Each structure stands twice: as C-alpha cells, then as structure tokens.
Amino acid sequence: MAARTSRIQKITSLLEGRSIVLIGLMGCGKSSIGRRLATRLKLPFVDADSEIELAAGKSIQDIFSEDGEDVFRDGERRVIARLLDNSSQVLATGGGAFMNAGIRDNISKHAISIWLRADLDLLMERVGRRSHRPLLQTDDPRAVMQKLISERYPVYQQADITVDSQQAAHDVIVRDVVRKLADYLTTTHN
Ligand code: S3P
Asked: Each residue of 89-136: pLDDT tens digit?
C-alpha cells in the first residue's frame, strides 16, 4: 500500500503540471478508464466531448446534424486548447481529436498521451448495435470502424504510451496504465 502511494505521488510530481490525455477509437474505454485513472492519481477527470457539448449548448449528435462535422472539429480544437491550459488532469478526447496536427502538437507540449489500443471486435462490442455516435450511424458501422482503424492507428501510434485495452476488468487496464506511466516518467522522458 505504501509502495503504491509513493508510486502515485511520484507520477503526479513528475508530471510537473502536464496533463494525461487519453486517445483512441470510439469504444476503446477512454472515459471509463480515464475516470478510474483520475481517481487513482487523485487528479480531476475531464471529458473533452462533454466540454464541447457544454460550450455549444447542444449534443455532439446535434452539432454534426445541424452544423456539420467541420464546425464540430473547430469547436473540438478550441475546447481542447483551452483544457490543456489546466494544470494536471486526466483528459479523455474524442476519437478524431488526435488526427488533427495542431491538437497533436498542443498535446505533446502540455501532456503525456496514452493510446488505448483495441481491436475491431472489442470496439464493436463496446459501441453496441445502435450507437449515438454520428460517424457510426450508417448501414455498416463495422466497415466504418475498420476504415477508421486503417486511417487512424498509424497516427495514434505517435502517442507517448500505448496500452492494450483488452477484454479485461477496467481496474486491470488502469493498473497497466499506471505502471507504463511510471516507467515512462522515470526514464529519459521527464
Ligand atoms: C468521434 C468520436 C466521438 C466524438 C465524435 C467524433 C470520432 O468521441 O468526438 O462523435 O471522430 O472518432 P468518442 O471517441 O469518445 O466516442
């Protein structure tokens, strides 16, 4: 227990005010893992998509259908830039955020990025059959997800840390995240 507490303290001090940003495809567990990770590290948890909805005064679904994806992406860029000015926090981002070079650059300046990598079957199981997510409201959401994997995984792999989000209890994944974070921060990267 004492060892665990000192590891947590070490992580938060080595962050030196930087945030932890979770990236990955829809359904990989950014929000649920992020919430648990924040509790473990005693840091605030912030969900970028919820903040975008708050700023816009409407749901992501309505932003996409009424204003279009470009307006959503613009709001996403502004909201994430604002959130990255906060001191250390766990920030879950929407699946498309890290694909924007400006957001990626901003994340690398202010945060440690963690990619929660998951395979197609797991993602499809997690997003369910009728997703509220605008990008998956198509006749063949599995094909869309497969395409997003091909387009995005080569970019997601630029994250500082990669953790496999497998079919395991969330606490097991959080433990893995904490271990990799401690390794990352205590090697040459601090
Ligand atoms: C998107 C993912 C969603 C949300 C929006 C677009 C994407 O967030 O930002 O629907 O481009 O992958 P989650 O990854 O949290 O579902």
From this structure: 999 999 999 999 999 999 999 999 999 999 999 999 999 866 789 999
Token digits of residue 118: 């998951």
* Residues in the ligand 1 pocket, defined by CB under 6 Å: 26, 30, 49, 60, 94-96, 133-135
* Closest alpha carbon to 35 in 184, 179, 181, 177: 177
pTM > 0.90: yes or no: yes
What's the rounded Cα separation, in Å, for the pair 116 and 24? 5
* H helical segments located in the chain: 2-15, 30-41, 48-56, 60-62, 69-83, 101-110, 120-127, 141-156, 170-186
CA distance 42 to 116: 20
